[in-house]
Design a protein that fits this description.
The complex is a heterodimer of chains A (111) and B (116). Chain A is an all-beta fold. Chain A contains no helices and 11 strands. Chain A is 0% helix and 54% strand. In chain A, strands 2, 4, 5, 9, 10 and 11 form a 6-stranded mixed beta sheet that branches. In chain A, strands 1-3-8-7-6 form a 5-stranded antiparallel beta sheet, with no helix packed on it. Chain B has no helices and 11 strands. In chain B, the strands form 2 sheets. In chain B, strands 2, 4, 5, 6, 9, 10 and 11 form a 7-stranded mixed beta sheet that branches. In chain B, strands 1-3-8-7 form a 4-stranded antiparallel beta sheet, with no helix packed on it. Chain B starts with a strand and ends with a strand. Classes of the chains: A mainly beta (111), B mainly beta (116).
Chain lengths: 111, 116
């Protein structure tokens, strides 16, 4: 069974600090990896995608991928209260026909 | 920014009734998906659809479920005889030809289905 694993949290981070979210995946053939943000009762919103080893930065967000360790992470710099949400890690199956989601990490930014 | 539109936003139905959930994908997208999320649980893949046929389906997508693209714009999910455990948020998503799943999906705002 192909899986994407995340710590469910909650992860509590003070405002202005760096939030670090982690994820592992089981399918070595996965090529594309995503971080989605989901507010309570809302749909997932794509915030980062990463396809090759290393770091990818977009504003306050940095995604990191290590295919050898099958590990994906998301760093959020200068955390804001509006970043409080559940963060979903996702990966494509090797066939790229679908995206599989982890169960999400609940992030809480405390003022 | 282009959107995936889902209707209705909330549907309440009696157990055993048929429901149809509707989605209008982004106009130039060719791959369509349905996912569901039971309250407090993960977003689960149901089915992918391309070129008027199912590309892949999960074990959740049994004979009670069907999908259709009845015209050039709508993409529907039908549940023939709803069960209490079908209560969930149902999300439609689409992706373009070049990306398929590779570049991520755009999700609709979801339909909350409550079976009583």
């Amino acid at each position: 069974q192909k899986e994407v694993e995340q710590n469910s949290g909650p992860l509590s981070v003070p405002e202005g600090a760096i939030a670090s979210l982690n994820c592992t995946y089981s399918d070595r053939g996965s090529q594309s990896f995503f971080w989605y943000r989901q507010y309570s009762g809302k749909s997932p919103e794509l915030i980062m995608s990463i396809y090759s080893n290393g770091d990818k930065e977009d504003g306050r967000f940095t995604a990191q991928l290590n295919k050898a360790s099958q590990y994906v992470s998301l760093l959020i710099r200068d955390s804001q209260p509006s970043d409080s949400a559940t963060y979903l890690c996702a990966a494509t199956y090797s066939s790229a026909s679908k995206i599989i989601f982890g169960s999400g990490t609940r992030l809480s930014i405390r003022p | 920014e282009p959107e995936v539109t889902q209707t209705p936003s909330h549907q309440v139905t009696q157990m055993g009734q048929e429901v149809i959930l509707r989605c209008v994908p982004i106009s130039n997208h060719l791959y369509f998906y349905w996912y569901r999320q039971i309250l407090g649980q993960k977003v689960e893949f149901l089915v992918s659809f391309y070129n008027n046929e199912i590309s892949e389906k999960s074990e959740i997508f049994d004979d009670q479920f069907s999908v259709e693209r009845p015209d050039g714009s709508n993409f529907t999910l039908k549940i023939r005889s709803t069960k209490l455990e079908d209560s969930a948020m149902y999300f439609c998503a689409s992706s373009d030809l070049a990306g398929r799943a590779k570049y991520g999906y755009t999700f609709g705002s979801g339909t909350r289905l409550t079976v009583v």
